Amino acid sequence: MFIKKRVALILCSLLMIWIQPTIIHDNTHIVTDSYVSSLSSIYLEEHTPIIIESNAAFSDYDFEGSGSSQDPYLIEFLNITASGSHSVAISIRYTTVYFVIKDCYIVSDYIGIECWDIADETGLIVNNTCISTSMNGAGVVAVELRNATIEGNQCYGFAQGIHLNLADRCTITRNNISDSTYQGINIRYSDNNIITYNRIENSSQHGLAFVGTSNSNLIHHNVFLDNGYEDTYRIDGERTGTLTSQGYDEGSQNLWYDDGQNTGNFWSDYSGSESYSIDGPSDASDLYPINEGAPDSVPSDYIISLVVLGVVIIPVLCLITYRYRRRG
């Protein structure tokens, strides 16, 4: 029995080593809720919701790190459930120290992770899974900040997967957002953000929307799949129109493609040879939409990872079996 448990533990450890880079770096791979849930039970610590509203509050939770740029506070490997109509699983406000929120599994009735009015370049939100139980709120929220990074997160079933408001120069990359009951990503009154390599799927309205004076944002190499299944869109409950695109733009000078590589985004409803029009008064368009290659095909790095996993596991199992037989 001891040997079997030992083998199971080693297999689980090797599995985690294998899937971690796959989740972060492959924007075409969506992890199912049940799969992530099983992972959370393996290696995550159950924790109550985290509310931080000052630098000193980090020490109340005994997180690793000192808050410096070289040694940020680490909020990691936690399993958090937040219940209530305006509940938040992790909230950080009014801080100036450095922190990283990573590898957490969050179930929330309203907000998964929110950062408000934090100092420039101090926040990194990476590789978390946020699941809504109410089809309301947002998975990741960033308000009144600059230069934050939101990378490799999974957001399921919120009104909006990711929401920015008065947030500039942020990087939103390699996130998987699905089944949003409003918009996949909502950018409000926010400038000079970079939105790349995200997969946004099955939002009821637009997969990505720029609202208000959101200017000079860059959007390319994203995958937009089957967003906008409603007939009409509504912005702030007051601006409506016929939904004809998976993107919306009422800002200015937002660039929906990489002008250096002449490469835009993948749109599942695009089958033409010209530009892809974006809904909204800005009359924006993706001049170089990607119209080739199946976004749900198995990527080459996934296959390589599988081969490497087999190469690692087989010798380990042989070694364990050999030692067990010798003891017998």
Structure description:
With 328 residues, the chain is of the alpha/beta class. The chain folds into 2 domains: 1-26 and 304-328; 30-303. Helix content is 20%, strand content 34%. It has helices spanning 2-25, 33-43, 57-60, 300-327, and strands at 45-47, 50-52, 73-76, 78-82, 88-93, 99-102, 105-108, 111-116, 123-126, 129-132, 138-146, 149-151, 154-156, 160-168, 171-173, 176-178, 183-188, 194-196, 199-201, 208-211, 218-220, 223-225, 232-235, 239-242, 247-249, 266-267, 276-277, 285-286. A 9-stranded parallel beta sheet has the order 1-4-7-10-13-16-19-22-26, covered by helices on one side. An 8-stranded parallel beta sheet has the order 2-5-8-11-14-17-20-25, with no helix packed on it. Helix 1 runs antiparallel to helix 4 (300-327). The longest helix is centred in the last third of the chain and has 28 residues, at 300-327. It is globular, with a radius of gyration of 21 Å. Residues 1-38, 294-314 and 316-322 have low confidence and may be disordered.
